[in-house]
């Protein structure tokens, strides 16, 4: 009895294992009858163990003669029996343009290099029925309609036409520049530097024209006047009078000039110090006298101009040779502009041809 039970158990195990390892291939079609040009879908399903790999048939354009394959969907995989089995579905979209009854042979699926086949299918394709007794119900093909004109369709073409002329002029300019190979000439304007006494006199003329002392601002007047003199002394005699006191400036000037030219300047500085630090309010004639003293000091101490000296140039011409980098940039610009012009002409031409064709 035990021997029989053992054999039965072994048979059940082997049978279950064989079932688990079985491969089934099934093919169905959603419509057995279609009109010419209509579509039908063939669903090919393969059930197999999850660890096996299936290779579905590949059709380029026809399933059989007269039946075309329009689309092959991506395979869809479902796991069954806790992931031990797989159900893979592949859909094929077909159509036909010849009325007939088509035999669709079994579809082959390779599983572990072993072929499995589905059942054969059939497809009936009907032509569109025509009532020859009433021909007036049918009309011939319509003529090609001209699309309405829309400015939006021509924006790019219009932009190409508008940019063509400036781009062409720029291309001509670049070609001319690279062909003549002339050096680049630059002119730099240089203003000649005025001598110190002229700069000082210009500043004094400004002070005279503004007449600050007549507006009740003697401190501002004497500050501007002494600053103009300090700047002149610095440029004329070479020591930093802007950072010195009035007495230090006088002491430095006494070492290199006559005392008569400096005496009036000493009086001017003393008055300026009183105005700035002691709130002294000088008289009108005193302000005028100090202005004249400043002018006399400048005229007496200015450098004598050389009558034979050549005038300084107001422009300096700099000649530069065109570098290799500049030539490369010019050449690249010419190529890009030429390509853009040719492309724009081709684009506009094609648009016009398509519109009037």
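-> sequence recovered:
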């Amino acid at each position: 009895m035990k021997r029989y039970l053992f054999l039965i158990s072994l048979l059940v195990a082997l049978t279950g294992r064989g079932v688990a390892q079985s491969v089934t291939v099934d093919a169905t079609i959603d419509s057995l009858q279609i009109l010419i040009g209509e579509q039908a879908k063939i669903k090919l399903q393969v059930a197999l163990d999850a660890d096996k790999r299936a290779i579905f048939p590949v059709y380029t354009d026809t399933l059989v003669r007269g039946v075309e394959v329009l689309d092959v969907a991506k395979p869809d995989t479902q796991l069954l029996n806790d992931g031990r089995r797989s159900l893979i579905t592949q859909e094929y979209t077909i159509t036909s343009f010849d009325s007939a009854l088509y035999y669709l042979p079994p579809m082959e699926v390779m599983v572990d290099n072993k072929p499995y086949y589905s059942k054969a299918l059939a497809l009936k394709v009907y032509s569109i029925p025509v009532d020859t007794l009433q021909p007036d119900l049918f009309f011939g093909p319509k003529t090609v309609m001209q699309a309405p004109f829309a400015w939006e369709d021509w924006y790019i073409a219009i932009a190409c036409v508008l940019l063509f002329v400036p781009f062409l002029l720029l291309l001509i300019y670049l070609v001319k520049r690279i062909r003549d190979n002339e050096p680049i000439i630059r002119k730099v304007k240089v203003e000649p530097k005025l001598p110190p006494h002229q700069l000082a006199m210009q500043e004094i003329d400004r002070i005279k024209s503004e007449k600050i002392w007549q507006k009740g601002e003697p401190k501002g007047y004497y500050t501007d006047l002494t600053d103009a003199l300090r700047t002149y002394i610095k440029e004329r005699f070479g020591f930093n009078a802007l950072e010195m006191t009035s007495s230090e400036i006088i002491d430095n000037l006494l070492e290199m000039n006559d005392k008569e030219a400096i005496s009036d300047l000493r009086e001017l500085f003393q008055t300026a110090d009183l105005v700035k630090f002691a709130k002294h309010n000088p008289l009108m004639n005193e302000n005028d006298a100090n202005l004249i003293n400043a002018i006399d000091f400048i005229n007496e101490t200015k450098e004598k101009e050389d009558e034979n000296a050549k005038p300084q140039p107001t422009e300096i011409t700099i000649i530069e040779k065109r570098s290799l980098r500049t030539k490369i940039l010019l050449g690249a610009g010419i190529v890009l502009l030429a390509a853009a012009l040719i492309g724009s002409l081709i684009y506009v031409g094609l648009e016009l041809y398509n519109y009037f064709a």
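Confidence is low (pLDDT under 50) at residues 4-8, 12-20.
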